[in-house]
Amino acid sequence: MSSQSQKDWLTDDLCENQITLHKIEKRLTTTRTAFQKVELLQTYKHGMVLVLDDTIQSAESDEWIYHESLVHPALLSCPPHGKVAILGGGEGATLREVLRHSWISEAVMVDIDREVVNFCRKNLKTFHQGAFDDPRAKVVIDDARSWLKNQPDESFSSVIFDLSEPIEQGPSQLLFTREFFEQIHRVLVTGGTLGMHAGPVDMGNSTLDEFFPRLIATVASVFSSIIPMCAHVFSFSDLWTFAVATKNPTKNSILENVDSLVKERVKGELRHYDAQCHAHMSNLPKYVRRLLSKDWKVYTDEAPPSLD
After folding, report:
1. Contact 88, 161 (CB under 8 A)
2. Which CATH class is domain 3-59?
3. Which of 44, 49, 228, 293 has its CA 20 to 30 A from that of 60?
């Protein structure tokens, strides 16, 4: 491949032995913050794409698959009153989906990188759709773990976990440990939920194959109920996993009336998530169930994950 043609492609390193190439129509803007490299690209296949440290974070073509899968199963499962916390979520699309629930009195989005939040607020208006201007939205620039430590017990109905995958010595490495999930459990009300992404299921890559089931095992060591789910996010070139964990559930946390709850609680029409989608997402493929059935060590502060 010539140097000129290389400039026209985004190289997304999925793992040590696999890359995906996305042809770039136009490089819109690039900057570097104190924490990471930030790019906004216009691609032929996926439209506008947010790229952090050379890895796709959100794509215009399918970000709604990821964000609806992350947010709505958790918010339809928790008590419909009070506050919601979002950990991460700089581009504002998670905030957008959270604020579609009219019962929420306040949505607190906690992100460590002020420059990324400002960048996305300015450049990704089709993603956040004005969510930052909602009077219920509150943006806090802080490390999620430090911020969470200072929150009162049982102060949130749900916590949405939208943090980037852990890399060695990176800012999110200690946000995937049992100790951190214990803090999330502490701030949730009874019946409150944790909605989270759990990374890819990447067949043939031992590091990624281990990360998902160990993360689920880690959360399960803290929460009394956890439902793993998955959905295909095309721009990620992978089967992406999610989970809803519930603190001392007061009822069956498997949703049996998704469509009626969506109609009752969610403003506007969803593009991805409904009852049939929920059934599909929560009925995992056999190879994924086998992976989860093994006895995995949990991640701790002394032995956190690293996807380097």
Report:
1. yes
2. mainly beta
3. 228
- Same fold: 3-59 with 63-293: no
- Who's near 208: CB < 8 A, 6+ residues apart? 15, 199, 200, 201, 202, 307
Domain ranges in the chain are 3-59, 63-293
Cα–Cα distances in Å, from 89 out to 95, 125, 284? 7, 14, 26
Tokens 């093994």 sit on residue: 294
Q: Which two tokens stand for residue 213?
A: 């089931």
246-261 confidence digits (pLDDT tens): 998 876 555 678 999 9
18-32: strand order across its sheet: 9-15, 18-32, 37-43, 47-52, 55-59
Q: 306 has which bridge partners?
A: none
The answer regarding whether domain 63-293 maps to CATH 1.10.10.10 reads: no
134 is known as an active-site residue: no
Listed in sequence order, the DSSP H helices in 221-285 are 258-265, 275-282
Query: Running DSSP on this structure, what letter comes out for residue 252?
Result: -
pLDDT digits (tens, 9 = 90+) for 228-282: 999 999 998 888 999 999 998 876 555 678 999 999 999 999 999 999 999 999 9
Give me the catalytic one of 111, 162, 202, 238.
162
Q: Is this prediction's pTM over 0.90?
A: yes
